[in-house]
């Protein structure tokens, strides 16, 4: 078992920062409560996600954008494949991105959102949840900055108008003919800066610890599971590790149930250059070369079959 105790975000930032740092150094993950995202909003969002995924395939497929890299709208079951995996994940999902004002200079790198016309409340609820995730993300990034001995607001400009994506996930009940080796989400690291995950109470999420064992991540209802992504790993020259994780198939009764979850992949702004922080590089070490967040993302999307 992991001893991922939940950390309260309502504590003074310095205290929160040292507990978060400890959890990140050990697991690359932390469970956070009192994060400020209202439970009524979370419940509403989960209910609407369930309504969407219950629509007929033909209706859902109308929102799959050909050639869009899955960046917005619907991605059908059996499409995404984890880096280095041989079978597809057993999931379908919907992506909500940033709503940029018309003519914004970054609009070229960020596709506009689309919304399911069948569910009129969808847009307002998920735009609100997106902005709540950003607010909580800002506080978590301040704590990470303190942990890294940076100015508290170091990350503010790096994520301003960032390419963050909220993913509504549905893992359907397992069918009789699951392809050999296929699981709900194969082992992977997240591509982005940090991930804030809601709704992962239904069992299945596991992280790979430093000892090479898979351990369950089981946030209590309403709590966030937060993890370090590949971009933050690269920025910190591997001091903070992007921990491999997966979602395994349940047995027994749970295999006949759907699982839902809502990760928010917090990204740097596309033109931010990810270059190892000087205070994370030891003498004689050669960190990975600088790369823009946009180029890094495109490289990784090609590897997971989405671009
Ligand atoms: O569904 C979950 O609990 C985790 C999903 C995940 O790791 C991902 O989508 O990157
Ligand atoms: Fe993930």
UniProtKB/TrEMBL annotation:
<keyword id="KW-0560">Oxidoreductase</keyword>
<dbReference type="InterPro" id="IPR005123">
    <property type="entry name" value="Oxoglu/Fe-dep_dioxygenase_dom"/>
</dbReference>
<protein>
    <recommendedName>
        <fullName>2-oxoglutarate-dependent ethylene/succinate-forming enzyme</fullName>
        <ecNumber>1.13.12.19</ecNumber>
        <ecNumber>1.14.20.7</ecNumber>
    </recommendedName>
</protein>
<keyword id="KW-0266">Ethylene biosynthesis</keyword>
<dbReference type="InterPro" id="IPR044861">
    <property type="entry name" value="IPNS-like_FE2OG_OXY"/>
</dbReference>
<keyword id="KW-0408">Iron</keyword>
<dbReference type="Pfam" id="PF03171">
    <property type="entry name" value="2OG-FeII_Oxy"/>
</dbReference>
<dbReference type="Pfam" id="PF14226">
    <property type="entry name" value="DIOX_N"/>
</dbReference>
<keyword id="KW-0479">Metal-binding</keyword>
<dbReference type="InterPro" id="IPR026992">
    <property type="entry name" value="DIOX_N"/>
</dbReference>
<feature type="domain" description="Fe2OG dioxygenase">
    <location>
        <begin position="161"/>
        <end position="268"/>
    </location>
</feature>
<comment type="similarity">
    <text>Belongs to the iron/ascorbate-dependent oxidoreductase family.</text>
</comment>
<dbReference type="InterPro" id="IPR027443">
    <property type="entry name" value="IPNS-like_sf"/>
</dbReference>
<comment type="pathway">
    <text>Alkene biosynthesis; ethylene biosynthesis via 2-oxoglutarate.</text>
</comment>
<dbReference type="InterPro" id="IPR050231">
    <property type="entry name" value="Iron_ascorbate_oxido_reductase"/>
</dbReference>
């Amino acid at each position: 078992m992991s001893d991922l105790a939940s950390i309260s975000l309502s504590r003074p930032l310095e205290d929160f920062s040292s507990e978060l740092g400890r959890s990140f150094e050990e697991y690359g993950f932390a469970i956070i409560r009192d994060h400020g995202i209202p439970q009524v909003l979370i419940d509403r969002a989960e209910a609407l996600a369930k309504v969407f995924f219950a629509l007929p395939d033909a209706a859902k497929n109308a929102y799959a954008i050909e050639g869009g890299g899955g960046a917005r709208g619907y991605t059908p079951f059996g499409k995404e494949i984890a880096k280095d995996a041989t079978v597809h994940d057993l999931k379908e999902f919907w992506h909500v991105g940033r709503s940029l004002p018309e003519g914004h200079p970054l609009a070229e790198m960020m596709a506009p959102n689309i919304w399911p016309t069948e569910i009129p409340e969808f847009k307002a609820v998920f735009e609100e949840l997106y902005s709540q995730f950003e607010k909580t993300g800002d506080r978590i990034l301040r704590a990470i900055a303190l942990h890294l001995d940076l100015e508290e607001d170091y990350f503010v400009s790096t994520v301003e108008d960032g390419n963050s994506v909220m993913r509504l996930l549905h893992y359907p009940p397992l069918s009789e003919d699951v392809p050999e080796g296929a699981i709900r989400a194969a082992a992977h690291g997240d591509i982005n800066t940090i991930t804030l995950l809601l709704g992962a109470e239904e069992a299945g999420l596991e992280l790979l610890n430093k000892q090479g064992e898979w351990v369950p991540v089981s946030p209590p209802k309403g709590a966030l599971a937060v993890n370090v992504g590949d971009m933050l790993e690269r920025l910190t020259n591997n001091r903070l590790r992007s921990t491999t994780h997966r979602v395994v198939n349940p047995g027994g009764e749970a295999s006949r149930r759907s699982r839902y979850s809502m990760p928010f992949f917090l990204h740097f702004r596309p033109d931010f250059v990810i270059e190892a922080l000087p205070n994370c590089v030891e003498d004689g070490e050669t960190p990975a070369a600088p790369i823009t967040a946009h180029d890094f993302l495109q490289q990784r999307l090609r590897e997971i079959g989405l671009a």
